[in-house]
UniProtKB/TrEMBL annotation:
UniProt xrefs under PROSITE patterns: PROK_CO2_ANHYDRASE_1
Protein name (record): Carbonic anhydrase
Native organism: Eruca vesicaria subsp. sativa
Pfam families named among the record's database cross-references: Pro_CA (PF00484)
Superkingdom: Eukaryota
Entry function: Reversible hydration of carbon dioxide.
Gene3D superfamilies per UniProt: Carbonic anhydrase
UniProt entry tagged with the keyword Repeat: no
Amino acid sequence: MSTESYDYEDALERLGELLSDKSDIGNVAVAKIKKLFCELEEHKSNKSSDAKERIQSGFIHFKTHKFLKKPSLYNALAKSQDPKFLVFACSDSRVSPAHILNFQPGEAFEIRNIANMVPLFDKTQHSGTGAAMEYPITKLNVENILVIGHSRCGGIEALMSIEDDAAPNKSIFIEDWVKIGTAAKNRIKQDFGDLSFEEQCSLCEKEAVNVTLANLLSYPFVRERVEKGKLALRGAHYDFVNGTFELWELDVKTTPAYTFS
């Protein structure tokens, strides 16, 4: 029995003692509370069982339809990996790079976070992001970096909602993180201040990708490889409302964008 169950039983016993000397109402109340507790425990157990079954069935499907059907692929991956892409994407559950672009196992090294952002190079901050970048770039020698923004991004909405009066944070981590894209927010507010908030967010989803592309060049191991032609940087925007995917090079102003639908 869990600690929660012990706490419940103890509370139930004390409640019974308080009510039992009053009238039979006490026994009725305790019985009803116990019944409610049992129902809640059963509901919690069912939810836990559902999650476990979903995980188990998902793995069985993967092993049956993929792992066992492609032994040569998975045998090779067991020995090493040689991805050609490093992909930055949002943590949003609707935006899975492997699903959207049909990447196969071993083809893309993925880094996902809120609003697909990369901070400026700083050894004293954001070491998690830096380490996640450094390994595929310097050890696996990926040849392409792709940053994917997406429609209806909650992180971008949070960024665009930040007031300029330095009001206290409304979140523990999110607001400080999305401020990485402040330059994108400022540009959209300045150039498109007459548009609706929703329209501004849509534009900022793409502009924030450009900020991330620029920030990537602040990392010495990225800039060096880009300058030597060993690493290409691209931005993209996935619109899951209309089912389109827009792709552009490092500077969206000087290179054409390609839209797939």
